[in-house]
């Protein structure tokens, strides 16, 4: 008899203690995916905007004398091939579009002459 009562009592307690499954997806956990602060995101957006303002074109060694002097992209060390998408920096150095865009996201200077690209950009805006 006492065993039966004990079992009943345990069962009762077990049922009472069953926790309601509530999942709280904490906002802080999802935010870990993007660890950039708002300030960093703004700076990156501004930098992308500046990069987009740089003139771009395709490599054509026969058309322009200035392009003829630069035969390879110093970022990837590959020779330019006719028709390659390229980006012109204000210092007249040229690079593959993909190479220089990637480079400028990390360092906003020309990889050849170390001239700050944004300073040249700003001064060219003022004179225009
Ligand atoms: Zn390259
Ligand atoms: Zn340069």
From TrEMBL:
Superkingdom: Eukaryota
Keyword annotations from UniProtKB, A to Z: Metal-binding, Zinc, Zinc-finger
CDD domains per record: RING-H2_RNF11
Naturally occurring in which organism (per UniProt): Echinops telfairi
Domain RING-type: residue ranges: 73-113
SUPFAM superfamilies linked to this entry: RING/U-box (SSF57850)
InterPro entries per record: RNF11_RING-H2, UEC_component, Znf_RING, Znf_RING/FYVE/PHD
One Pfam family matching this protein: zf-RING_2
Record bears the keyword Metal-binding: yes
Record-given protein name: RING finger protein 11
